[in-house]
Amino acid sequence: MDLEHKFCRFDAEVTVIEGTKIEGYASLFGACDQGNDVVAAGAYLSSLKRLKSEGRAVKMLWQHDPAQPIGIWDEVHEDSRGLYVKGRLLDSVEKGREAAALIAAGAIDGLSIGYRTVRAAKNDKGQRLLTELELWEVSLVTFPMLPSARVASKGETLNDAALCKLAIALEGARREMAGT
């Protein structure tokens, strides 16, 4: 199976402290994404346990590029909300310094996970419910999930169902434009 990626917007989810420390959620449970996928609570548990038993860690990359590690995730775990990450950008690495500056300026506002799907099934809404994932990395990225779904009319926020419908519509439009 191929490596897949999921994006999550920083907004209030990720904070930067002292220019190099970052923390937040790389994945949120129950949220539908552009690919019509929903990550279930518990999807990362086996992978995180295996990594720990093997003395390995989830990698922090720049834009999913395996040739550009930019920091260390000191803490990666599931909680009731999603996949929480806490780590440090390495200021001794050029891309780490660049990432810190771009985050501080607001130019970079996304996290994305790189993973392999181990188990998934269609739910009653026709979405792919991801129940077990092999987590490889969490990247800092330029483009977050659903970049155009930030503002709702009259200052109201979109609920998960509305976001999912919008995500499906955007993905359909993207595929149509790509001719796939």
UniProtKB/TrEMBL annotation:
<dbReference type="Pfam" id="PF04586">
    <property type="entry name" value="Peptidase_S78"/>
</dbReference>
<dbReference type="GO" id="GO:0006508">
    <property type="term" value="P:proteolysis"/>
</dbReference>
<dbReference type="InterPro" id="IPR054613">
    <property type="entry name" value="Peptidase_S78_dom"/>
</dbReference>
<dbReference type="GO" id="GO:0008233">
    <property type="term" value="F:peptidase activity"/>
</dbReference>
<keyword id="KW-0645">Protease</keyword>
<keyword id="KW-0378">Hydrolase</keyword>
<keyword id="KW-1188">Viral release from host cell</keyword>
<protein>
    <recommendedName>
        <fullName>Prohead serine protease domain-containing protein</fullName>
    </recommendedName>
</protein>
<dbReference type="InterPro" id="IPR006433">
    <property type="entry name" value="Prohead_protease"/>
</dbReference>
<feature type="domain" description="Prohead serine protease">
    <location>
        <begin position="19"/>
        <end position="155"/>
    </location>
</feature>
